[in-house]
């Protein structure tokens, strides 16, 4: 009976109504054991008229089995798998152990979204998850990813204590359940106990249990027990968990020995089903009457081949109180009952074998290690880490134990447990007998040290490892030195990076092709950053050629990033586009977020700002949804730069968020990005003094790194222009000389063009400078910079009294800014035009500038001929979400068909690209 939960039921009704209306909704319930979470979930299911209800419930014994929660939840809708893109369907089959296909966890998240979206297309869906604290991590990540994107679905999830990060506020609404009011406790108890309690006794029960419904029911039922009466007679509140524990222990004590033994077996094998438990009971000699007695006592129930305890705490007590020998016997019998099974059944059998074993046993250890390998293949890295670690404990031979500890550490690293991974490596090191394994342990530990934030220390460790192995393993030495160089760059020391990268390059004759590619990429990048692109660019192109020749995809984005810095936009695009297509197709969100961030920078530099903002915003959204924290900082910082230039209101907020993440993760380079964004925002808004102060600090930061390549983040033109506009021409001249020298040394057309523009702002005879700048902007493929030069030229011409020429330059500037979406610069150019007496043209309403970044991405895909389903798969949305966005896009642009949408976008120039 559900009483005293009217407010909570109203919230559930609101979430259900939102799902039916196509708005979607997620509600996360939290509270102590017995507070009524399960009852509210049942109420939600009971009120879901006209909706398809999908359920899952966590169990302690399946918390380490990857995707076991999703397996239970999706069983009723697996027939819709055919609606998924092929790679996603394959990933889902692998995750659910239906096939041996690899299951990249992000691809599985996309597949879960697609499958739930397909189910919701038939009827609104209600997803109900109880005891989510015991749902495996892989399933929770996939469900959280889908829940944030579903529209015709309501998701109600219950956690006991701490909420999983992916379900915490502010992403989802949290509803913390407290105890019932005294009147509600009276109504609850009055309808449940055989004999009525006095008002005084009800008051004492309510106070003692703090209104916890289950505790109140258990205490009221046992009030005749002198010990219970004595406890509640104290008149002080007691922890509900303690009261419930006592009440459940009282229930267990009243059962016969065989019934308690049956409960222990059921607790060990609750996830295996009634048939497996019955087979195990037969092996243990437990009579059917033992289970019947437990059912009559209300401890458990059997329905549809599932054994369910009345409450998870009762299951835990039944298991813990059984004793170690009885627990091992139960697991041994369950392992025997599951013999001959495949897929997830074989994996659960391996866990039971391990739980039944005390002394080292290679056969059991090998079985569990084999299961761990399958977990890793399905991206269940946390489960793999636990399984490898337990397998190592059961391994008799020290050398083999070391190998399994290393495997456990690697799985732990992939699962986001670097500290534990280092502990496992430290345990493995003295056991390792193979030299190559010892070297591998040292290198992996250094990587983890860098990951945990000790960047400078990690660089020295990489270098020391390289020196140690250089004679016996030059390939590993070259790789370690490349890692050291990359770490030096992250720490802001490009000088040390160059020394180590050159040392790595000297070892290339003894390196594999893959290591050689890494070394060339690293050395090329460091050389470019140091202002030596003539030597660095060929190395980058060699690495890029390897990726293209071998069809390799991971790592392309890093090379593309460096190619952007030297202005090779075409090659960068050639590298990125296959990576973007592949990552979107297979659902590799980790690769996609990084590639989108670099793609955003490419589109920004080539004047395709709407596409740039859409790519950066999508990278931010995916990084947030999948907890890719470091990538999120970079994506936010790039988005802030784009928004600052385009005049979007969120630029400074996104910069602040990026800074906060960078501070937590020691990402010092992020301050350059965010400083560039803030400086540009101030300059575009007409606050040159603020821009000068901000960008001067960026310049000081960069100088400390030893970086000499101009235009890496393209803030230097803003710094020089801010100095001129702030009335500090001498400071501008000093900085300009340095930029001109580096432009000449590096051959950077971008830097030479910016230097020519600033020269025009400072010179008496400005025309030759601006004309040279425009020619160089054309070479560099920089339409935004060209428009800025025309603005500066128009301003000088207007001040010189050459109004006709000024108008020509200013109109071209305004058109250029408008075409790429540079709103504050468009306004500046239009103000200057107005000052010349030029009458301004009105802008037609309903232009694509009105679209959000995500709406623009959807509009572009639809205009290119993609169906709603194709767009959903491309952008990791549900088809209903795409449909809702498309309705808003039509309204904003004043169109009513896909054909009209395509024509409207075709008429909107986007600049060269």
List the helices and strands and how they pair.
Blueprint: H1 6-20, E1 25-30, H2 37-46, E2 52-57, H3 68-74, H4 86-95, H5 105-122, E3 125-130, H6 137-147, E4 153-159, E5 173-176, H7 182-190, H8 199-209, H9 213-221, H10 226-232, H11 240-253, H12 257-268, H13 274-284, H14 288-296, E6 300-303, E7 306-309, H15 312-320, H16 324-337, H17 344-355, H18 362-377, H19 381-393, H20 398-414, H21 418-428, H22 435-451, H23 455-469, H24 474-491, H25 494-506, H26 513-529, H27 533-550, H28 556-565, H29 569-586, H30 589-605, H31 609-625, H32 629-646, H33 651-665, H34 670-684, H35 688-705, H36 716-725, H37 729-746, H38 749-762, H39 767-780, H40 783-799, H41 803-820, H42 823-835, H43 853-863, H44 868-875, H45 879-893, H46 898-906
Parallel strand pairs: 1-4, 1-5, 2-3, 3-4
Antiparallel strand pairs: 6-7
Helix pairs in contact: 3-6, 4-5, 5-6, 7-8, 8-9, 9-11, 11-15, 12-14, 12-15, 12-16, 13-16, 16-17, 17-18, 18-19, 19-20, 20-21, 20-22, 21-22, 22-23, 23-24, 24-25, 24-26, 25-26, 26-27, 26-28, 27-28, 28-29, 28-30, 29-30, 30-31, 30-32, 31-32, 31-43, 32-33, 32-34, 33-34, 34-35, 34-36, 35-36, 36-37, ...
Describe the structure.
Strand 6 (300-303) and strand 7 form a beta hairpin. Helix 35 runs antiparallel to helix 36, helix 36 packs parallel to helix 38 and helix 40 runs parallel beside helix 42 (823-835). The chain is mainly α and 913 residues long. Residues 226-230, 232-236 and 908-913 have low confidence and may be disordered. It starts with 5 loop residues before the first helix and ends in a 7-residue tail after the last helix. Helices cover 68% and strands 4% of the residues. The protein is built from 46 helices and seven strands. Among the domains are: 6-176, Rossmann fold; 182-252, no CATH class; 257-418, no CATH class; 588-685, Serine Threonine Protein Phosphatase 5, Tetratricopeptide repeat; 848-906, Arc Repressor Mutant, subunit A (Orthogonal Bundle), CATH 1.10.10.
